[in-house]
Amino acid sequence: MPYSEESLVPFDVKSVWAAMEECHKLGLTKSIGVSNFSCKKLENLLSFATIPPSVNQVSPSSIIYPAHFVYFTHLIFHPKQVEMNIAWQQKNLRAYCKAKGIIVTAYSPLGAKGSKWDINQILDNELTKQIAQAHGKTAAQVCLRWLFEQGVTFIPKSYNKERLKENLEIFDWSLTKDDHEKINQVKQERMFKYGTAAFPLPDLFDGET
């Protein structure tokens, strides 16, 4: 539904987070989380939060909703979910979250084949294919294994039984040091490139790479 900037209500992160913390203390939820938080937004939140965020979800809805959207979760750990894959590695964000004890959950770990982004820069990446061939694995398994070795959790969506099985077969092998060095050189490009007049991309992600 179209809307104007004038129709938007200013978002008070501190007050909302305090209310979320109260819900947590009352046992209404096991954990609380945020959505689309950059390092800058996390730093601001952690400056007054007494309970760390559980989830930071970045998805297509980030184009519609404010970058400070918060919600309940029934998870029992403290992850933040963001777009992350070999083509958008978010090294600074990973390092920041690790330092703060926040678990990262990667959204879109295998790219977005068949979506409005048109091509899959993850599974169709020649380097990914080469590494997969060297290990006798699939490109998808290489991508998931890389995330696993970064200490990142991930959500590889599939309704295909064989692919679900394939996604689980990443724990009995490892990427080499050379593999990691090559993956570190992959050109970085965010798939979520478009904001709105009300929520421009710089406001959503604070220019982070």
Strand content: 5-15%
Tell me, what is the CATH class? Alpha Beta
CATH topology, anyone?
TIM Barrel
Helix share, percent: 25-40%
- What are the secondary-structure elements, in order, as H or E? HEHEEHEHHEHHH
User: Can you count the beta strands?
Assistant: 5
CATH superfamily: NADP-dependent oxidoreductase domain
* Uncertain stretches: 59-69, 71-79, 114-118
Number of individual domains: 1
Distance between the termini: 30 Å
Average pLDDT, all residues: 78
The radius of gyration is 18 Å
DSSP summary: helix tally? 8
Protein model, in words:
By secondary structure, the protein is of the alpha/beta class. The protein is elongated. It has a single domain, classed as TIM Barrel (Alpha-Beta Barrel), CATH 3.20.20. Helix 4 crosses helix 5. Helix 3 links the parallel strand 3 and strand 4. It is built from eight helices and five strands; from the N terminus they run αβαββαβααβααα. Strands 3-4-5 form a three-stranded parallel beta sheet, covered by helices on one side. A two-stranded antiparallel ribbon has the order 1-2.
Give a topology summary.
Elements (H helix, E strand, L loop, with lengths): L12 H13 L5 E4 L4 H8 L23 E4 L5 E5 L7 H10 L2 E5 L18 H10 L3 H11 L3 E2 L6 H8 L8 H7 L17 H5 L4
